[in-house]
């Protein structure tokens, strides 16, 4: 059994191809996370706005994103944009669009939560000792909010990485797509059942990437409790 | 937008909703059981079992459901274990969900104050009575928001079930997409998820209110 595993991995450039797939997964995740962070901060701050219309509309955006699976949005954009609006985007663009839309909502909610969790007296004390509004925000609220924000954001990174497995449905050559190709080739060309080892290895790949990040999130969480 | 098209294929989506709901319900129930068992092992520091439970939780939380399903459905038969698609889906969902539920329940258990436990022991409760009447009610109340968030998350995760050839909502949508009429299909797909998830979300917020009364001083 183990010999068959070695054969499957050393066959052609299977192992190398899987690593390339993993690289694609990581690139997609990194791009989606960066975009989501940027827009998430903006939307998150909008959620704290004193205008009711702004708060209601951002809230509506968040709840809509939350109640429907990401895969549904992926399908929606993939087919809706091309067929109905005749906008033909590359599938990578569609993926980034979908993931950013989803990630932005998640980060925005984390930002909102982090800022509202700072006790009121922090701001009041700052003003009382004669700091200006901007100074209070910059030196008192923001640093504390950032500390509370960190674990959630890091946790979202692992969720992003895991969720990129969905892009398999629209055929981007990332880890899942490549692993399926490898399994199929092994089955038809060499009549070799590779599914067990290949999917086992891919399982391990995801774990090796996500586990340390989860650990970081946990240790940040502990450090935030004071 | 063609109404006749929607009428024609609405039953297919209805069937998919029922199938998705059934699998999700079974998976979530199993995930709760598995999660509770793992949380108990970790909370009570049961020798050996707690290490096993922690390893399981990390493994379940850090890998995508799709790969878990691929492994169960395509990988395991190579090692001589053959499961049908629905069983794979439920096992996969329970495996993934168990990790998340365990974390929530453990968090709830650890949120119960030390003074609560000490007071309970002081007035002469046995360990079992203490857990049954003092710790668990409060732990569940504390864990409820994240448990219901997990339940909704797991229902959404069912969207990948089509990879093991189960006719769930995404599978039907994908099928119809090939026929054209993507607007109508998109509408039905999104509606199907709303029909499935919205009631659960309502029940969850009702449940949260209900158990909040069990919280100490709440």
Main attributes of the structure:
heterodimer; A: 226 residues; mainly alpha; MetI-like fold; 9 helices; 0% strand; B: 218 residues; 8 helices; flat
Describe the model.
The complex is a heterodimer of chains A (226) and B (218). Helix content of chain A is 82%, strand content 0%. Chain A is an all-alpha fold. Chain A has one domain: MetI-like fold (Orthogonal Bundle). In chain A, helix 2 packs antiparallel against helix 7 (133-163) and helix 7 runs antiparallel to helix 9 (195-224). The mean pLDDT of chain A is 86. Chain B has 218 residues and is an all-alpha fold. Helix content of chain B is 79%, strand content 0%. In chain B, helix 1 runs antiparallel to helix 7.
Would you summarize the structure shown here?
The complex is a heterodimer of chains A (226) and B (218). By secondary structure, chain A is mostly helical.
What is the topology?
The complex is a heterodimer of chains A (226) and B (218).
Chain A: H1 2-10, H2 14-47, H3 52-67, H4 70-84, H5 91-116, H6 120-128, H7 133-163, H8 175-189, H9 195-224
Helix pairs in contact in A: 2-3, 2-5, 2-7, 2-8, 3-5, 4-5, 5-7, 6-7, 7-9, 8-9
Chain B: H1 3-43, H2 49-61, H3 65-75, H4 85-111, H5 114-122, H6 127-157, H7 169-177, H8 182-212
Helix pairs in contact in B: 1-2, 1-4, 1-7, 1-8, 2-4, 3-4, 4-6, 5-6, 6-8, 7-8
């Amino acid at each position: 059994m183990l010999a068959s595993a070695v054969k499957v991995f050393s066959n052609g450039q299977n192992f190398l191809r899987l690593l390339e797939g993993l690289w694609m997964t990581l690139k997609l995740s990194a791009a989606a996370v960066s975009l989501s962070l940027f827009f998430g901060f903006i939307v998150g701050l909008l959620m704290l706005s004193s205008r009711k219309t702004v708060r209601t509309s951002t809230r509506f955006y968040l709840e809509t994103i939350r109640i429907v699976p990401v895969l549904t949005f992926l399908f929606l954009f993939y087919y809706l944009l091309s067929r109905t609006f005749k906008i033909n985007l590359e599938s990578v663009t569609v993926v980034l669009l979908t993931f950013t839309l989803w990630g932005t909502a998640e980060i925005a909610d984390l930002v909102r939560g982090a800022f509202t969790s700072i006790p009121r007296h922090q701001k009041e004390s700052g003003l009382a000792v004669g700091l200006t509004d901007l100074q209070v925000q910059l030196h008192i609220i923001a640093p504390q909010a950032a500390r509370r924000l960190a674990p959630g954001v890091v946790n979202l990174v692992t969720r992003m990485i895991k969720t990129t497995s969905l892009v398999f449905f629209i055929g981007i050559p990332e880890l899942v797509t490549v692993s399926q190709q490898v399994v199929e080739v092994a089955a038809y060309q060499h009549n070799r059942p590779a599914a067990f080892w290949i999917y086992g290895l891919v399982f391990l790949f995801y774990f090796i990437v996500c586990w340390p990040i989860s650990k970081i999130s946990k240790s940040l969480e502990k450090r935030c409790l004071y | 937008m063609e109404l006749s098209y929607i009428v024609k294929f609405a039953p297919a989506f209805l069937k998919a909703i029922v199938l998705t709901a059934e699998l999700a319900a079974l998976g979530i129930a199993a995930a709760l059981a598995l999660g509770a068992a793992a949380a108990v092992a970790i909370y009570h520091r049961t020798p050996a079992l707690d290490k096993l439970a922690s390893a399981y939780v990390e493994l379940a939380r850090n890998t995508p459901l799709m790969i878990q399903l691929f492994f169960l459905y395509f990988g395991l038969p190579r090692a001589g274990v053959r499961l049908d698609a629905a069983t794979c889906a439920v096992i996969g969902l329970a495996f993934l969900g168990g990790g998340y539920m365990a974390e929530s329940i453990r968090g709830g258990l650890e949120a119960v104050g030390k003074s609560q436990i000490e007071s309970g022991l002081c007035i002469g409760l046995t360990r079992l009575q203490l857990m049954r009447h003092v710790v668990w009610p409060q732990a569940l109340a504390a864990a409820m928001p994240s448990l219901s968030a997990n339940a909704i998350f797991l229902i959404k995760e069912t969207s990948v079930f089509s990879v093991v050839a189960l006719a769930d909502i995404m599978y039907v949508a994908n099928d119809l997409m090939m026929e054209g009429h993507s607007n109508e299909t998109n509408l039905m797909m999104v509606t199907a998820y709303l029909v499935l998830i919205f009631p659960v979300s309502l029940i969850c917020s009702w449940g949260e209110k209900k158990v909040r009364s069990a919280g100490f001083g709440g």
